[in-house]
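Section 5.1 Outputs to date
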Amino acid sequence: MTDPTGFAITVPESWFEIDVHPDTRNSALSALVNERVRNVPALAPHRTALTRALRGVARSAYANGVAYCAAMVQGFDEALLTASVTVSIVRNPDQDTGPSAIADQLRPLPRSGADGPWREVVQAELPGIGPVARTRGVTDVVLPEGEGWIRSVAMQTFVPFPGPHAERIAVITGSSPILPLTDDLLDLFDAVTGTFRFTP
């Protein structure tokens, strides 16, 4: 079999897969929103907010070197429920790519009050891949272009490429600013991450 150099991941059908490149993302996202509004007319009142939210996700993703980005945006009355999943490919500074070695480079953050940030470092099991290192919790995400920060539910899973490409790690990140749904969102991110696989 050819050595895996790519990857695939599956998100629910209701999610948007996002073009993050600055030269094409605005027109691509406008077309994407128009198509979704045609298929789901109830989203029409949220067209502007939906476009703005997706452009924000795309800008942030590109600024952080993301190779893949998908987002969920659902309208409820005057509110939007948003979440995103991204995949970045990074270099591993350590030659040891085992989950314990990667976890040793990650730092937990104890809970500080009901609304404060926190982070757990855990080991997860991905189908067809095996044990991997993961962080999960609530963190303050810095927005691109000096636009401030937003407190978000976040999960990051660190998956080393197999074989001769083991110096590369796929970092799968799920994030959402909807803190009251922290447990449900972490379960959702776990399910989406579980579909990740390497491809030739």
